Amino acid sequence: MKITKEIRMLELLANCDGLTKIDAIHHSDTCLNTTVSTIERKYGIRFKKVPVLKDNSFGGKTRFIKYCLEGEQRELALDIVRRVTRPPSGLEIKKTP
Fold first, then answer.
1. Which pairs count as long-range contacts for 34-39, CB under 8 Å and 24+ apart, including other chains?
2. How far is CA 49 from CA 27, 30, 66, 79, in A?
3. How far apart are CA 55 and CA 58, in angstroms?
4. Nearest 5°: phi and psi at 57?
């Protein structure tokens, strides 16, 4: 099964303390709010959305949303990632040296 952008970002979000759209750009996601919305709709995961301020290029502050997974939602996300990324049963993956 192909690993989608949503699954890659879900794995990242489940293994960190949250991301803003500026953080997500460094992981090749240029529209994190849409990715989060797709994950919520497709997998039923609920993100905590925390407003944060970051310095901008003009010496001021810009408001962003930091998307976080906590508790049961983090566990659900990790379970989904494991199920999607696990090879089908009976299929052996050979590692090359």
1. 35/5, 35/6, 35/9, 36/67, 38/6, 39/6, 39/9, 39/10
2. 19, 18, 6, 21
3. 8
4. -70, -10
- Tell me if 33 sits within 8 A of 65, measured CB to CB: yes
Torsion of CA 63, 69, 70, 72, to 10 degrees: 150
- Tokens 């049961």 found at: 72
| Partners of 63 in beta bridges | 53
Tens-digit pLDDT profile for residues 7-51: 999 999 999 999 999 999 999 999 999 999 999 999 999 999 999
Global pTM? 0.82
